[in-house]
Design goal:
Jelly Rolls, globular, DNA-binding, DNA-binding transcription factor activity, Homeodomain-like_sf
């Protein structure tokens, strides 16, 4: 099962909101992600598959998925859906933009920040340090933190923990690997540390997540 990273869906880290129109002519394999998804059927028919079971879809059907859930589509017959994707923190960002005196929107991602994000995503098992990451993108650690804060809204290490949690969630669903092994594969070699980090992202322990969302 593929785990969709937030960075694949939200090209602009200033506001984690995206949408697309999909014409599904074949089955869509089950996948998971750490953001909200709202799918509205505008044409055709199909079957939506998730941890909640199978639901037949027809025009005007609506599917709402919260962060951490997996889903897919089968028996698609001209199925057309309009998807909206919302990051888990989008409501806070939107309300902040509407409140007088609230902080301004985050700046566009600096090229070095984009480079750093791709480096982290490409090798989650690496025991990354802030100093190591700064050296790879030719920036002082303190300056890299400030750039990340302006364009991503979090520190580089917080971003790393988030994408590690997302990848761990996918492995928990798509494999039968022990929780400790999953943690080590994403760079969390201490099982208790892995559980704390995972819970801080999804509100569930790795074992609870697997029990709740695995097909």
């Amino acid at each position: 099962m593929h785990n969709v990273l937030s960075s694949e869906v939200f090209p602009d880290p200033r506001l984690p909101v995206a949408g697309e129109r999909l014409e599904l002519v074949a089955d869509v394999a089950a996948h998971s992600h750490a953001f909200f998804e709202i799918a509205v059927v505008v044409g055709g028919r199909g079957v939506h598959v998730s941890a909640a079971g199978e639901v037949e879809l027809a025009p005007d059907s609506v599917v709402v998925l919260r962060p951490g859930e997996w889903h897919g589509y089968v028996d698609c017959a001209g199925l057309v859906v309009r998807n909206a994707y919302l990051g888990p923190d989008v409501f806070g960002l939107l309300s902040g933009a509407l409140v007088p005196g609230a902080p301004a929107a985050q700046a566009p991602a600096h090229p070095a920040v984009q480079h750093a994000m791709r480096l982290l995503e490409a090798d989650l098992a690496e025991p990354w340090t802030l100093e190591q990451l700064g050296a790879r993108v030719n920036l002082a650690p303190g300056y890299l933190i400030r750039l990340f804060g302006k364009s991503v809204g979090m520190s580089p290490m917080a971003y790393l923990n988030r994408i590690r949690a997302e990848r761990a969630a996918g492995l928990l669903i798509e494999t039968e690997l022990p929780v400790a092994t999953v943690g080590a594969m994403v760079g969390w070699h201490d099982p208790s540390h892995a559980t704390r980090r995972f819970r801080s992202t999804f509100g569930l322990s790795p074992s609870q997540y697997r029990s709740a969302f695995r097909p």
